[in-house]
Design a protein that fits this description.
Blueprint (H helix, E strand, L loop, with lengths): L1 H10 L4 E3 L11 H22 L3 E3 L13 H11 L4 E6 H7 L3 H8 L3 E6 L15 H10 L4 E4 L7 H18 L7
């Protein structure tokens, strides 16, 4: 991870996405997995600070990981690591499975959120199924997110026609994302 952080800094990348999934582990429970990760994150974060990069923790869904499945959990780990070299990303595909609210998930990530993946419910281009992004986009507006969002999905149909349609769909969803008024 440290080597990848150095390369990401050289390239000017947003960071290195890491999924602390502990796949194949049969002896660790959530508490033990968290301890293993938290024992290493401060050192990794310090290295990221030194080289000008960061690790981006990515919560997955229960079908892909037994550990770190919600954005709030990742934010708590970032807070505990207490390093600008440890940050978080949110993935709309996984959030659709694990989170009760896209807006709530994004808000819980807050200042730790550094990158966002976009995909439909079926992991295709946004707009190619019923997935609604407005709640999550409202959350991004609330936290003042100015970072990157990227597509992490497949495409049904011709890429040259479907990707522009998806971009237009996302622009419309962003424009329609209403930030709740506080009175």
């Amino acid at each position: 991870i440290k080597d990848l952080m150095e390369v990401s800094a050289e390239l000017g990348a947003n960071g290195v996405i890491v999924v602390p999934a502990f796949n194949g582990q049969t002896k660790l429970d959530n508490r033990e997995a968290r301890k293993v990760l938290m024992d290493q994150l401060p050192e990794i974060g310090a290295h990221g600070e030194k080289v000008g990069s960061c690790i981006l923790l990515e919560p997955l869904n229960r079908g892909e990981a037994f550990f770190l499945r919600q954005v709030a959990d990742g934010a708590a780990m970032c807070k505990e690591a207490n390093s600008p070299g440890v940050r978080l990303m949110a993935d709309f595909y996984h959030m659709g499975i694990e989170e009760p609210s896209d807006m709530g998930a994004i808000i819980s990530g807050g200042a730790f959120l550094r990158h966002v993946h976009l995909a439909s419910t079926k992991r295709n281009l946004p707009g190619q199924d019923e997935r609604d992004f407005r709640g999550g986009f409202a959350g991004l507006k609330i936290i003042g997110y100015t970072g990157y969002c990227s597509l992490e999905c497949g495409v049904i149909g011709n890429r040259e026609t479907e990707i522009p349609k998806s971009v237009q769909f996302l622009r419309t969803q962003w424009a329609q994302a209403a930030v709740p008024r506080v009175s």
